[in-house]
TrEMBL record:
Highest taxon in the source lineage: Bacteria
Name assigned to this protein: RNA polymerase subunit sigma-24
Domain RNA polymerase sigma factor 70 region 4 type intervals: 131-183
Matching NCBIfam families: SigE-fam_strep, sigma70-ECF
Span list, region Disordered: 1-28
Coiled coil: none
Gene3D superfamilies, per the entry: 1.10.1740.10, Winged helix-like DNA-binding domain superfamily/Winged helix DNA-binding domain
Molecular function terms, GO-annotated: DNA binding; sigma factor activity
Amino acid sequence: MPVIAPVPATRPTQVTPQRKGAEDVKAEGTTVDHLTETYRAHYRSLLGLAALLLDDTASCEDVVQEAFIRVHSARKRVREPEKTLAYLRQTVVNLSRSALRRRILGLKLLSKPMPDMASAEEGAYDLLERDALIQAMKGLQRRQREVLVLRYFADMTEVQVAETLGVSLGSVKAYGSRGIAALRVTMGAKK
């Protein structure tokens, strides 16, 4: 049989002539005042519990406050007021577990080695080389430039380049070969 929360003393008690069945008795749940009082009285112990499970103070405080909010929103289900503290403790434990799971997942994602980053000098040098390549590409014949751009920058096969430009496969190979040779000469002369 569910336990009914205590009725305030200001309300007169009435004896009902009919006896109600267990299914007719409705539990009011924990009152907001009782929950708030329990939270205030046991805040430090709840914080200590979270501190044993987690490692930083800010997370502990967040977990304890979130536990209060969750139990507050579900207070109607806490039919026995003396179990309010147990509900708060269990919620702190569950939220701490969730926080640890998120951290572990984050560490797994971050533990992958980052690719080596180029230094600022290397980045500047690459930028200069790219600019030189763009200038050299501008000096090529139109078909040579088109073939090289489609082949190497658009990552197309020679057959796809031939279809795109409407020329034969042999022409694509010839334009590509002549274009690369011209770039070597132009880029070699600038070094």
